[in-house]
Amino acid sequence: VAVPVICVDGPTASGKGTLAAELARQLGYHYLDSGALYRVAGLAARRAHLALEPSQEAAIADLARALPLRFDAGRVWLGDEDISDAIRTEAAGMDASRVSALPAVREALQALQQGFRRLPGLVADGRDMGTVIFPDAPLKVYLTASAAHRAERRHKQLISKGISANIADLRADLEARDARDSSRSVAPLKPAEDARLLDNSDQTAQQSVDQVLHWWRQVQ
Ligand code: C5P
């Protein structure tokens, strides 16, 4: 019997993480934050003083394959170090986007991601969950929101953490990251053909959760 998977893909700051984590909680499923893996790969490459470029593709892929990664109670560990905060900065997101454009790095992280698919089920969020990693998933959601809404949400998040930020800069950054993620040759950001589109610009987090749970009951 195939282990059920719900894929939640979409652009930067669309609310994928919030939606996917809440679905996993309500359904009692495992949760995969695939972006965190690329963020860790970017961090590890930086620390190894590797340029985040095609010339270092093989070296970064080797690093990615051997990451001593652990996910525990919502925290991400690299060896003995809790790197949860270090990988959440805007700069770490940009670094993740750079290393994620390298095909060998994507391939190095593929089996690790597929290993999260265990009973009773999985909710996976990212850019290519429905197109590449779990193409047979019974439910694929492509979550979007306008760039203005996404920048505003990211701004609120940062302010609530006591980090000052400028909305126009945030918007420019997330549009640059989306442009790179959408234009790369491997696993570009785009909805799977059988994905259901959900624009949450004018929805509360709870409304999005309810919509997806409704779809989930329909496909089962
Ligand atoms: O989702 P998050 O912002 O944490 O992802 C960081 C970056 O990692 C994205 O901008 C994207 O370039 C990359 N990524 C990816 N494929 C995924 C998840 C993230 O290429 N499945």
Structure in words:
The chain is an alpha/beta fold. It contains nine helices and eight strands. The strands form two sheets. The protein has a five-stranded parallel β-sheet with strand order 2-6-1-7-8. A hairpin with a 2-residue loop joins strand 4 (75-78) and strand 5. 39% of the residues are buried. The chain binds cytidine-5'-monophosphate. Cytidine-5'-monophosphate binds at residues 12, 34-35, 38-39, 93, 96-97, 100, 126-128, 177, 181. Residues 179-203 are annotated as: Disordered. ATP binds at residues 10-18. Belongs to the cytidylate kinase family. Type 1 subfamily. Belongs to the EPSP synthase family.
Oligomer: single chain
Query: What portion of residues is helical?
Result: 40-55%
Q: Specify the number of helices.
A: 9
Distinct compounds present: cytidine-5'-monophosphate
- According to DSSP, the number of beta strands is 8
Gap between N and C termini: 13 Å
Low-pLDDT parts are: none
N-to-C order of helices and strands: EHEHHEEEHHEHEHHEH
Residue-averaged pLDDT: 95
Protein name: Multifunctional fusion protein
Binding site for ATP: 10-18
Region (Disordered): 179-203
Family: Belongs to the cytidylate kinase family. Type 1 subfamily.
Question: Could you outline the blueprint of secondary structure elements for this entry?
Answer:
Layout: E1 5-9, H1 16-27, E2 30-33, H2 34-47, H3 57-65, E3 69-72, E4 75-78, E5 81-82, H4 90-100, H5 103-114, E6 122-126, H6 129-133, E7 139-144, H7 147-160, H8 167-183, E8 196-199, H9 205-219
Parallel strand pairs: 1-6, 1-7, 2-6, 7-8
Antiparallel strand pairs: 3-4, 4-5
Helix pairs in contact: 1-9, 2-3, 2-4, 2-5, 3-5, 4-8, 7-8
Cytidine-5'-monophosphate (C5P) is lined by residues 12, 34-35, 38-39, 93, 96-97, 100, 126-128, 177, 181.
Function: Catalyzes the transfer of the enolpyruvyl moiety of phosphoenolpyruvate (PEP) to the 5-hydroxyl of shikimate-3-phosphate (S3P) to produce enolpyruvyl shikimate-3-phosphate and inorganic phosphate.
Family: Belongs to the cytidylate kinase family. Type 1 subfamily.
Domain Cytidylate kinase: 6-215
